[in-house]
Amino acid sequence: MHRRGQVEVRTNGNNCVEVADNLPDVVLVRDSKARDGETPTFGPAAWRAFIADFSEQP
After folding, report:
1. What integer pLDDT is reported at residue 23 of this predicted model?
2. Residue of 47, 13, 58 whose CA lies nearest to 32
3. What SS3 state is found at 28?
4. Which of 6, 23, 39, 52 is the least crowded, having the fewest Cβ atoms under 10 Å away?
5. d(CA 48, CA 54)
6. H/E stretch holding 12
7. What pTM does this model have?
8. C-alpha–C-alpha distance, residues 58 and 54, integer Å
């Protein structure tokens, strides 16, 4: 995963995901503790919709 544009998102202690949003037409997400695990991919519009929905949660 290319690191430029990477964002770390932390919740409840040390749970963390890394997001690479600097690639054309794709956003990659991975668990920072399982770097060799699966890397889910999203289209930019789907990622923006997910973040918008997540941001509205209490």
Report:
1. 87
2. 13
3. strand
4. 52
5. 10
6. none
7. 0.66
8. 9
The phi, psi pair for 10, rounded to 5°, reads -115, 140
Phi–psi pair at 52, nearest 5 degrees: -60, -45
- Max Cα distance, the chain (Å): 32
Distance CA 31, CA 24 (A): 21
Model pLDDT for residues 4-56, shown as the tens digit of each residue:
455 555 566 667 778 888 888 999 988 877 878 888 899 999 988 988 887 77
Residue 53, both tokens: 């929905």
Which two tokens mark 50? 């997910």
Task: Write out the two tokens for 11.
Answer: 């919740």
Q: How far apart are CA 13 and CA 22, in angstroms?
A: 26
Please name the helix (run of DSSP H) or strand (run of DSSP E) that holds residue 33, with its range, or none. none
